[in-house]
Write a structure and sequence with these properties.
The protein has helices at about 20-25, 45-55, 60-70, 75-80, 160-170, 175-185, and strands at about 10-15, 90-95, 100-105, 115-120, 125-130, 135-140, 145-150, 155, 190-195, 200-210, 210-215, 220, 235-240. The protein is α+β, with helices and mostly antiparallel strands.
């Protein structure tokens, strides 16, 4: 049996302005425009992505501008909104309990950015970085931990790639209840399962472009659950060909 070695890096980036984040991310951003949707590569699409970001994540706008300004690609600002990226679909499994969160990564090792980042954009947050500054999972200084998995249905609609949503929740929330309240208001581009844990409770929810937020009966998400009672929205479309993970969506 052949041996595969994957090296993970852990970095402290502070508010992202001193170059450490940019040095790590620049190679990942090569060919960034290929990760954007066709609309996202237009001036109008870039404006719409920025507007969506400012409506739903205004607290992070200064951080986005600070990060994008360190990247050479003209698409950086749009890409980092994660509101105009091509969808991808991949699996994972996660389970939570009071004060504990366990998950795995069910995808090829080459598709993991392999960077654990400790940051302080709005508050101390640590997690597994994805799509520039999003997170596959993470924890903040209040003891809130969150992770994501793919929701099991191949649909795509307007909204954010989920790694940035996790970043936003960890930057702005202290408890599971607060994070779920914010998550209800944020459009998510593809179906996702989100497990949230704090010292007092653990909850898994289903979100997606064609369903309201649904709380699961148990705080776990094997891949792939398909919540019942989902409804199709007019702007949603099946996207079975978007299967690569490097576009910036869900685990």
């Amino acid at each position: 049996m052949s041996q595969y070695i994957k090296t993970f890096h852990a970095i402290e980036i502070g508010d992202g302005g001193d170059g450490r984040w940019a040095a790590r991310v620049r190679p990942i951003m090569m060919g960034a425009e290929s990760r954007l949707t066709e609309e996202g590569r237009t001036p109008q699409g870039a404006v719409r992505a920025r507007r969506l970001f400012e409506v739903h994540m205004p607290e992070l706008a200064p951080a986005l501008d600070r990060l994008a300004g360190q990247l050479a690609t003209p698409w950086a600002g749009t890409l980092l909104t994660l509101a105009a990226v091509r969808p991808f679909f991949s699996g994972c499994t996660q389970i939570g309990g009071k004060g504990a969160l366990l998950r795995n990564y069910d995808f090829a090792p080459d598709h993991c950015e392999a960077t654990i980042v400790s940051s302080h954009f709005l508050r101390p947050v640590i997690g597994m970085q994805e799509a520039g500054w999003g997170l596959l999972d993470g924890m903040n200084d209040a003891g809130l931990a969150i992770s994501l998995t793919f929701g099991g249905r191949f649909v795509h609609g307007p909204g954010f790639a989920i790694p940035l949503v996790l970043r936003y929740l960890l930057e702005t929330c202290q408890t599971v209840d607060e994070a779920i309240g914010r998550l209800r208001t944020i459009p998510v581009a593809i179906p996702q399962n989100v497990t949230l844990v704090d010292p007092d409770q653990a909850v898994t929810v289903f979100v997606g472009p064609d369903i309201p937020l649904i709380e699961a009966a148990d705080s776990c998400a094997p891949q792939p659950p398909a919540p019942t009672g989902s409804r199709r929205a007019g702007a949603i479309h099946p996207d079975p060909q978007a299967t690569g993970r490097r576009a910036g969506g869900g685990s």
